[in-house]
Each structure stands twice: as C-alpha cells, then as structure tokens.
Write a structure and sequence with these properties.
This protein is mainly beta. The chain has helices at residues 3-14, 206-210, 215-218, and strands at 17-19, 21-27, 34-41, 44-49, 56-61, 67-72, 79-85, 88-93, 98-102, 108-113, 124-126, 131-134, 139-144, 149-155, 167-173, 176-181, 186-191, 197-202, 222-228, 233-238, 243-248.
Length: 250
C-alpha cells in the first residue's frame, strides 16, 4: 500500500462516525453529577461527582450504581475527573485546580495544585505511570505524579488537522484515550502518542430511548467513561443520568 493511500485511509477513518452498542442499562440513583469514573475492581467503580456543596468521591457497585463508600468534599470544592495510579486515587477539582490524593479508603493523603498553564481541572486518566489531565480545550497534559511536573502535552485533532476542543472525561486503554466531548453525545478515540482522533462514536439515541435529560439545555450531558477489561466493554453515564450503560465501542 502506498504512503499516500494509507494517509488517505487514515484521514477517512478519522472523520467517520461509529455507532456504539448498548449491552445493558443499569438503573441507579439519578442524583450523581458524574465527573469521573473508573473501575477499581471487576465489580466496583470509583466515581467523582461535582457541584459546589455536593461534590464527592465514592465507590459504587457496578451492578446498581449505589454507593458503598463515600467521602464528601468541602462545600467550596467542585469535583471533577478521577483515576488511580498504583494504590493512590487522584481527584481533580474545577476552578480551584486542586488534585486530592487518597488511599483506597478515601483517606486524604495530600493535596496538590495543578500547574499554572492548566487553566482548569476537567478529566483525568492514566496509563499506569503518568496522570493525564484535560482542561476543556484541545490539550491533554501528561504529568509525572512523582515529580509533579508536566512531561508532555497532547494536541487533540482530526485527520484534517482541526483541533477538537472540549475534551472532558477520559479513559486510557492500550495506547488510546477515549474521551467525552463536552456538550455533545460523542466519544472520541484518540491516539495517545499523536493526538489524532481515530474514531468518533455516537450515543445520540440514548436520550430518546431511555428518557434522559436534554443535556445540551440542562447541562446534564454525557460524562463519565470507564473501561472494564474483563468484558472489553465500557460503562458510560452522564451528569444526573438515571442509568449507567454498558456499551461496546467497536
């Protein structure tokens, strides 16, 4: 295959939309303003929720979304993305630009401050070594959690070179970052090395089929994406959604 043809195919693929397949819908309490989500065991997820006076970090059952352990943030902190590196859980806050570091039982170990060039705390994920942080722009920052410094920046773009702004909640899987695009019903699959969007998945049908809030009007948008390696599926939800969906992203 010639280099020109391969480049053309990559551009065509990167601009295509792909459908997700819902495997099951898990009803849960609809009062979770989900900002971050990841699996910490095959049967439990850690969820970060937002809003001032309501923000929490909590462990929930994958089967019904109900909390089994909860830690409430100060009323002046707005929870955002979360992830786990080793035995430590990291939770961002929004305009306060804090990063809380907990043990597995949500005992606060330390509070760090995000770097000045990161304008706000949004999404968080990890490759097992580095912390990836989004700020609502087209940039994902890669942070060394031990030295607490930025070691790389990823500019997210499509095959035409157009930047994709509003990168929000994220999940790293095998060299790719799956990310929500704020105020849309899309998840993008990003090459973590180059920033190129490989696929764009549509979840538009969920609102009508499952009577979800109109996110673009209410702010209750698609947000929260967790990978379950045992089934090679994703658990996705939204802000104050009454369901968590197990989906296949082909």
């Amino acid at each position: 295959m010639s280099g020109v043809l391969l480049l053309f195919l990559l551009f065509a693929l990167a601009s295509s939309n792909f459908q997700s397949r819902v495997i099951k819908a898990i009803e849960r309490p609809p009062n979770h303003f989900t900002q971050g989500l990841f699996f910490d065991s095959p049967n439990t997820l850690v969820e970060s929720t937002g809003l001032y006076s309501e923000s929490r970090i909590q462990r929930i059952k994958a089967s019904n979304g109900r909390p089994v352990l909860t830690h409430k943030l100060m009323d002046t902190d707005f929870g955002e993305g979360c992830t786990m590196i080793g035995q430590k859980i990291y939770q961002l806050t929004w305009m306060e630009k804090k990063c809380f570091v907990y043990d597995k039982k949500f005992k606060l170990l330390e509070t760090k401050q995000l770097m000045p060039q990161i304008r706000e705390g949004w999404g968080a994920t990890t490759d097992g070594t580095y912390l990836y942080v989004s700020e609502g722009s087209a940039v994902i920052y890669v942070i060394d959690p031990k030295k607490w410094k930025i070691v790389n920046k990823i500019a997210v773009h499509d095959g035409n070179g157009t930047e994709q702004n509003d990168i929000n909640a994220m999940q790293y899987v095998n060299g790719y970052i799956f990310a929500n695009v704020y105020m849309t019903d899309y998840i993008v699959k990003i090459n973590a090395n180059t920033g190129l969007i490989i696929k764009r998945y549509s979840l538009e049908g969920l609102h009508n089929k499952y009577d979800l809030p109109e996110g673009s009007r209410s702010g209750h948008v698609l947000n929260g994406i967790a990978y379950r390696k045992e089934t090679n599926t994703f658990y996705i939800t939204g802000k104050k959604w009454k369901f968590i969906f197990e989906v296949s992203l082909n």
